[in-house]
From TrEMBL:
Protein name, as recorded: Helix-turn-helix transcriptional regulator
UniProt xrefs under Gene3D superfamilies: lambda repressor-like DNA-binding domains
Domain of life: Bacteria
Organism this protein belongs to: Alicyclobacillus fastidiosus
Location of the HTH cro/C1-type domain: 8-61
UniProt xrefs under InterPro entries: Cro/C1-type_HTH, Lambda_DNA-bd_dom_sf
PROSITE patterns: HTH_CROC1
Length: 65
């Protein structure tokens, strides 16, 4: 799974969601959210939580192109 950080950041912007908001919504610690947004590949369950919180799919954020 390869994170497309630009897609993730764009989805967060579209939802007006900050790192803190995403951490709170997903239950993922803020420091881990920050690492993921900076490009660290997440665990599968964290990727799923993030996608759900942003109203999208894992493939849309972590898929190719």
């Amino acid at each position: 799974m390869v994170l497309n950080t630009e897609k993730l950041k764009k989805k967060m912007e579209q939802q007006s969601m900050t790192l803190h908001d995403l951490a709170e919504t997903t239950g993922i610690p803020l420091d881990r959210i920050s690492m993921i947004v900076d490009g660290t590949d997440p665990y599968w369950d964290n990727a799923k939580r993030i996608a759900v919180a942003l109203g999208t799919t894992i493939d849309e954020i972590w898929g190719g192109e």
